[in-house]
Amino acid sequence: MEKDKIIKQQIKLSKELESEIATLNKFLIEKNKVIDQQIIQADNVYNELSRLNSSLIEKDRLINQYIIDINNVKNKLVNLRERMKDRNNQIAQFEKSLSWRITKPFRYLNGIFKK
Fold first, then answer.
1. DSSP conformational letter for 1
2. Count of structural domains within the chain
3. What is the pLDDT along the chain (115 residues), one digit of tens a residue?
4. Which residue range(s) make up the domain with 86?
5. Phi, psi (deg, nearest 5) at residue 97
6. Contact predicate 81/87, CB 8 Å
7. Which DSSP string do the residues of 8-31 spell out, in sequence order?
């Protein structure tokens, strides 16, 4: 009798444990679903970050190229200003020369006759 009572208690405990295990298994299945969804979301975020990073790298490359282009244009502008300054100095020297001053009346008359 005592053995029967112990066996019944163990059977009851075993059924309770099986029930608890089943409940825990359901809980784990639901948690695994949530984790799977979070993994998918994390993968999507990672892929988006990778795409944005690639875009950022390309834009950074373009910016660096633009900086090089701007510096090249600045250098050309400096060279053109120097050339213009040299030409203006040459013109000023021509205008100060004796021959330019002597021929001024002829240039004036030539302008009048062309009109």
1. -
2. 1
3. 788 888 889 999 999 999 999 999 999 999 999 999 999 999 999 999 999 999 999 999 999 999 999 999 999 999 999 999 999 999 999 999 999 899 989 888 888 887 6
4. 2-114
5. -70, 155
6. no
7. HHHHHHHHHHHHHHHHHHHHHHHH
